[in-house]
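Page 42, continued from yesterday. The earlier attempt failed because a stray header line got pasted into the input along with the sequence. Redoing it now with the clean sequence only.
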Amino acid sequence: MLILGGRGCALVRLGMPIAIATASAPADLRGVDAWINQTLAPVSDAVAAVVFHTVPLAGQPFPLIVGWLIVLALVCTVVLGLPQWRGVRHAFDLLRGRYTDPKETGEVSHFQALTAALSGTVGLGNIAGVAVAVTIGGPGATLWMVVAGLLGMASKFAECTLGVRFRQHHDDGSVSGGPMYYLSGGLAHVGWPRLGRWLAVVFAVCCMGGALGGGNMFQANQAFHQMVNVTGGAASPLVGWGWLFGVVMAVAVGLAIIGGIRTIVRVTEKLVPLMAVLYLAAGLLILALHAAELGPALLRIWHGAFTSEGVAGGAVGALIQGFRRAAFSNEAGIGSAAIAHSAVRTGEPFSEGHVALLEPFIDTVVICTVTALVIGVTGVAQPGLTGVELTSAAFAAGLPWFPEVLAVCVLLFAFSTMIAWSYYGLKAWTYLVGQGRRQELAFKLFFCVCVVVGASMQLGPVIDFSDAMVFLMAVPNVIGLYLLMPMLRRDLARYRRRLASGEIRALW
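This time it went through. Structure tokens are written below.
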């Protein structure tokens, strides 16, 4: 069974082969596929080679982009004074609406902004990616994955705070924010206007590429092939009808995104909790049924994280796989989530920063850890079984009916990812070409057309290129965060003093 959802293209580089059927496109479309692949393959390979360049670390390949993100997370943790520890209680109070003034400017609530951002990350990485990390790095990879997730909470805190701090308000009541705006406006504020403008343009271009490819066409393509697989594979009546599946999905996506972030969050605030609760409930039930194995599984995780005995490279291999899985799962430091969080109704930028730090905790620390523990307690790991096959087998060992439910979740994961990334791409597009109903409608229509294209064709290099574009977003974003860190630290100290003195009060 094939599972997708969330940002999952990078799993190919993690060693997980993503099977793509070749019978979904008519012969005339396959000819177009081949031409597009041959034309873009050299460019795609070159960009991916740079973005995902690896260096040897204790004999194991370590992607520099992962180190780029993890170092940022560590710096944010230290410089901002452990926000993921000191701010959790305040984050939950904000999420419950205790500090929410309905008169504040913005478009969505704290909860809606969080679910919109989570809809773009929760999915494939939490299901298949964890299994890949455990298979390659051993059980110890789980611990390092959790550590990286906890550190990533600080990165998410920083970028989402800045997203609200430098967002722009429009006459119709809508807002635009994200790295494009805090790179241009924020760096101009601290004396780097020209650098800020260039970094913002680079980020916006990369964001558009990632949204149309990995956040759209990849999701539609894999959703269709999942439906083919569960309805008979090569003998499925859906074979050859990818374009029709794409049309249906494009209509659904269009209805969800036509009204902008306000209609998107009406979907995500219901869909994301449903997906998370369903998956976690099944996982916790399996852990309860295998309670006797939970202790030994935790010991294997601890032992594998620090000893030289491991599947690939011992403790270092476990660390690399754990950090890599966390970075590819929660996207802390990439900047995408700041676009969704910027739409929140608040007059305090740090309020949304606190809410945003919960995102890596939910995505990586909770959901990914439950996946790893289910794999550990069921003992289904065996040679040749990895990725989604391993995760599916682990859940089936405890709940024989769950793989069928998981197949339904696949479409939900894909759909939620597509509508979240449509908003990211839209804001990047309007930053480059300007605000206006025509500009927005043009992008939304093109986004829906790409849904049909993605479901109908095999665009391997296109997906590889867009995947690289997503992680290339981290380069300008991280540079900007480093330059804005002193200002962020001063403002955070002031916010904490106001909170402690009662100047910022809960409304109930």
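Notes: DSSP finds 21 helices and four strands in the chain.
Reminder to self: strip header lines before submitting.
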